[in-house]
Amino acid sequence: MKWLPRVLLCSLVTICAGCATHPTAPTHPAESPARPAPLLLISIDAYRYDYVERGFSPTLAMLEKSGVQAASMQPSFPSLTFPNHYTIVTGLRPDHHGIVNNTMLDATLGKFSLGNRQAVSDGHWWAAGTPIWETAEQHGLRTATMFWPGSEADIHGHHPDYWKPFDEKVTADQRVDQVLAWLDLPPAQRPAFLTLYFDAVDHAGHTYGPDSPQVNAALRDTDAAMARLVQGLKQRGLFDRINMIVLADHGMANNPLSNSVMIDQLVPLDQLQTVSMGILAGFNPKSDSTVDRNHFAAVEHQLEQPQQHMQCWDKTRVPPRFVYGNNPRVPQLLCLANVGWRVTTTDYAASHQGHISIGEHGYDNADPLMQALFIAHGPAFRVDAKVNAFPNVDVYPLMTHLLGIPAVANDGDYDAVKDMLKPSER
Ligand SMILES: [Zn+2]
Q1: What are φ and ψ of residue 311, in 5° steps?
Q2: CA angle at residue 23 from 241 to 8, to 5 degrees?
């Protein structure tokens, strides 16, 4: 009975010996002298590509100058927070990784929304994607997330090695200090992949609009946290030895209160199931009954006619460039507001007076106002290099390359972004 395991063991040893010099070889951090430089992925939520030019982000400007600056990075559709953060760590479009909106319905799992802690931390919602931290761990690398959508969920039964339940009260400085503390761990426990997330720019953008002094103050505050990070890395001799990617999930557009499509004034909504409202509204038939289906078809026909401030499609007729509509979680009928507009109802507008965002995202992901920040800095990256705009699905294969781990099937293209690396690092 003993020979079979020995044969298997020999095969494994042979396989490992054969791939020991290959960059994707499984290694353990404590055992590997050729451990990859740590990779720190930083998201500044809703940091639009052009915000750097306002002059409130000197640390980001310094990183651009001594690293790589993309003209912009295109979010995936819809240009919302959860779908895009999960795209960045999986390389999959939202239609493919299943987080198709911040608010969703699933036939088996029920309702998903950002405030629903139970749903957000349920790995089943996220299971169609394999986040980079899962693959990194399978290859012997430790991982740590100082907040990231998906990191709270037990995806395929796994979390990052170190992670925190989202708590907006944790200050930007505390988040930075936690990342530095993780980098201070002994080599065997030290993460090779880390995330850091800032949300102040997004909050100010929603509440006061992207052109407000409050957004500029948030840019200043977030840059101060970035300066603290850079200083902490320099004190540890790590600043030139860590690869950093600083990006955003989407941009931000002005959304004046008056720019509301009252959809209930166009069609009767009471006979539909409303899944989401706002920038991307979604509806299903109320039931499978013939009456409800016929009613739904009539409403859909009416809304699919040209509309002044939004566009509606059956999910099978969404323009192909959005790569959206095949996932069963995408509602049957979608209404996308034109940039600067929202889709709402008379009742909702009346009951939420004073609490309606005047800055929004979620729009057409090709719109200039939805484009996001991208900066990269570190030993693998070129210095003072500018690269063209690219889609955010390409970040994932770039990161797996940097970590020396295999990329699982994804929608990204490493060849499209490898020029930002030094030739010796490609
Ligand atoms: Zn966001």
Answers
A1: -130, 135
A2: 135
144 Cα: distance to centroid of ligand 1 (angstroms): 20
Q: What is the pLDDT averaged over residues 388-393?
A: 98
For ligand 1, the distance from its centroid to the CA atom of residue 28, given in whole angstroms, is 34
Q: Distance from the CA of 305 to the center of ligand 1, in angstroms?
A: 31
Any domain includes 22: no
Under the banding of pLDDT at 50, 70 and 90, the label for residue 424 is very high
Q: pLDDT tier at 34 (50, 70, 90 boundaries)?
A: low
Say yes or no: 193 and 322 in one domain.
no
User: Which of 402, 391, 381, 392 lies closest to 65, judged by CA?
Assistant: 381
pLDDT tens across 86-107, in order? 999 999 999 999 999 999 999 9
140: left (phi over 0), alpha (psi -120 to 50) or beta: left
The 10s digit of each residue's pLDDT in 99-142 is 999 999 999 999 999 999 999 999 999 999 999 999 999 999 99
CA-nearest of 366, 348, 311 to 333 is 311
Check whether 19 has a pLDDT greater than 90.
no
Ligand 1 centroid from CA 359, angstroms = 12
Contacts (Cβ under 8 Å, ≥6 apart) of 377: 63, 66, 67, 68, 243, 244, 246
Active site residues: 81
d(CA 307, CA 313): 11
Q: Is residue 9 part of a domain?
A: no
Q: For residue 207, which phi and psi values (nearest 5 degrees)?
A: -75, -40
Domain range spanning residue 416? Answer: 39-253+366-425
Residue 30 token pair:
């404590």
331 and 393 share a domain? no
